[in-house]
Amino acid sequence: xxxxxxxxxxxxYPDELNEAMAQKxxxxxxxxxxxxxxxxxxxxxxxxxSIFDALAKGINSAGVDVVSIGxxxxxxxxxxxxxxxxxxxIMITASHNPKEYIGFKVCDKNxxxxxxxxxxxxxxxxxxxxxxxxxxxxxxxxxxxxxxEYVCHVHDQVDTSCLKPLKVVVxxxxxxxxxxxxxxFAGLPLTVDKLYFxxxxxxxxxxxxxxxxxxxxxxxxxxxxxxxDIGFAFDGDADRVMFVDESGQLISSDMxxxxxxxxxxEQYPGSKILYDLRSSRxxxxxxxxxxxQTSMCRVGHxxxxxxxxxxxxxxxxxxxxxxxxxxxxxxxxxxxAALYVLAALSxxxxxxxxxxxxxxxxxxxGEINSEVRNADQKIREIESLFSDGDQDHLDGLTVNxxxxxxxxxxxxxxxxxxxxxxxxxxxxxxxxxxxxxxxIRG
Length: 442
Prior knowledge:
Blueprint: E1 9-12, H1 19-33, E2 37-42, H2 48-60, E3 65-71, H3 74-84, E4 88-92, E5 101-108, H4 120-128, E6 141-143, H5 147-157, E7 166-171, H6 177-184, E8 190-195, H7 217-226, E9 230-234, E10 241-244, E11 250-251, H8 253-267, E12 272-276, H9 281-289, E13 293-297, H10 301-310, E14 315-317, E15 323-325, E16 331-332, H11 334-346, H12 352-356, E17 363-364, E18 368-370, H13 375-385, E19 390-392, E20 397-400, E21 404-410, E22 417-423, H14 426-441
Parallel strand pairs: 2-3, 2-4, 3-6, 7-8, 7-9, 12-13, 12-14
Antiparallel strand pairs: 1-5, 4-5, 9-10, 10-11, 14-15, 15-16, 17-22, 18-22, 19-20, 20-21, 21-22
Helix pairs in contact: 1-2, 1-4, 8-9, 8-11
């Protein structure tokens, strides 16, 4: 069943994922979790309310209650499960995908993520074998307003009293970021220029995917026009955030990992910081220079959350703009990451570009995607050609040399091969990149 992915459930509405399927999935969730109460929220996508009704019907048909927290961001589902102790949480969202998509992100009790290797495969099988709901007493749908508790939770993580009066531009992309930002950042000493704050599942201005450079252009332009100190953009369900500096330049998320990591290590010396394997070598070097411990992890929120919890890490950063916090039930939060960056910026007398400049000491290719016929075969070919390097298979293939490294991995969400390469200097990086691209696309 193609809608069950590595990290979540996602498909085109109504062809791949519709109300009938949502009802089956709701029933299967209750059986998998053995739950008595499941918290459910949804984003601004057009089909979200009807999908919620169908999902709740499936859950209720198994005698299980639904706590409805309404239209929220994905991090708010993590919060409500962790804070109130519900048996599981389901967020109805397709994250950063285009408007025709709908889906579910799922967590177990204690905000333990559910990926394909940790339960979604079982739920998929249960859905395929679904023969109709059992004849049991119906569960209820119970509405719950959690906004005040959520805002207090976010503010408890960051000392907002230290914030300077900064000029900020925020692009919410017509997703949930605008709604949440208005409540979380209310009363803070910021001058805010707002772009696309109205929730609109048709995404009339641009896709809610800040990883695509074309979706960041309006933010970059506005930061320059308003002479702002910083700009940031949320994805559709506001669990990710990307930043631009005062000159409108995009900031790579691994540089932000260093910035937040440094800020947190000043409060919690010697703590462990995790980073995904696509990140710059500078992350490990800078964190360890500050006395912190480091650990590398594979790509994907379901994997990183589990590893952060297992290793009792303080914080984790992912190149895709996800930032995870121990104090946030080991879950990600775009709002918390934005607050931490503002706090870090407020501590210094330098603009953001100068703060991160010392970390930008390597050539980085950025993530390059290529469609290939047989990704596994192509990875084996690359493995053979670069057998003289130090190889690792944590996620795809990583090959390390003294002055450069690369990782090539299959996408878990698209039929492509993803390449990231870093080198000590531009000439070496471009030389090795050309060689690799000939192999991948040849």
